Amino acid sequence: MFVDKVKIFVKSGKGGDGHVSFRREKYVPNGGPDGGDGGRGGHVIFEVDPGVNTLMAFRHNRHYKAENGESGGKKRCHGKDGQDLIIRVPQGTIIREAETGKVITDLHGIDQKEIVFSGGRGGRGNQHFATATRQAPRYSEKGQPGKEYWVILELKMIADVGLVGYPNVGKSTLLSMVSNAQPKIANYHFTTLAPNLGVISNSYGKHYVMADIPGLIEGASEGIGLGHSFLRHVERTKVLVHVVDVAGTEGRDPVEDIYTIQKEIKLYNPEILKNKPQLIAANKTDVGNYEENLAHLKAEFEPQGIEVIPISAAGNQNLQDLLKAIGLLLEKVPDHTIIFEPEFEENSEADDEPFTVTKAGEGYYVVEGRAIERMMGYTALDTEKGFAFFQKYLRDKGIIQALVDAGIEESDVVNIYDLEFEYFK
After folding, report:
1. pLDDT higher than 80, residue 49
2. Which of 80, 260, 297, 360 is most deeply buried (CB count within 10 A of its CB)?
3. Number of domains present in the structure of the chain
């Protein structure tokens, strides 16, 4: 079964907690702190697997969690890093954040491998918190939590040429005649329920990939039938070939069919047709009278720069002319894969992220929070202006008030990651 869109839950590993311990050896009764750091949590990694062409594996398993990091130990022992979680997907898979629909990454490359969600950083052991005035800190950091999201995996197949058209116009037959593909073919509507790919070799020794995109109908852009499932595969193609029943064997007007398909593609994504060359394969010239419809097609579309080529896929007639025309169009198209740029910014709401205030000992308070840590990373705290900005940040975000509520008094020590300072009103 072909599956090209699924929703799954992923979570990176939590960082291991730092350890609190003190060196205790013979003849060293009052050794210093030696608590080790926690290990990093496992990353969530998505990797392209060339042997997979569907998202079927995700239908029955929708929850994926990387391993947590281990806590630190005595004698400055570092906790073991959590094992990374590698999720294998087909080439052409786009990962979106489910709530916003924004693109996180586009796995378009062969053997592409990306860390999509990093594991939490391990907490520091108490060895890091010793100072000249505080030589026996009984505090260590907790490991950072992992990142958890519902994401949508969306497969947009990568092909140079896309065959589009109504059901039963001969797309599958055409693909089977010009490539090594062996799609299921029958004289029924909607026989093709999944895109088929075939490799075409032209007379110049060049190869390109052609996709038989299942039949589109009016209303496809609104999701009627399997419209969205089919239309997403049009986006990456470089050239579109409209396959029509020029003989009108089912009583439809081929000109109207093409305009309907173009309309549905534009409604789905207006950008698709702007710079994508189009070609018309007027199929079934071996059935009935087709001359009038062919003349109508040429008169309507060739002035628009869309060439019309009469063929018979079943009778293997004029297919080489069609392939030659497709090859000429491909030469004019830039030779690169259409890539969907990342839109999702994980920390776009960083200022609203929570922080914690912990009383770690008598007269000693610890403030933690991802937004605070990031702010310290880009603020020059060793300058007067930078430290003034830092103090304003603490007031504006309610951190000073949270310390007051926790019972802080004058001259108590506040620890914020690598910074320690005394509190004064």
Report:
1. yes
2. 297
3. 3
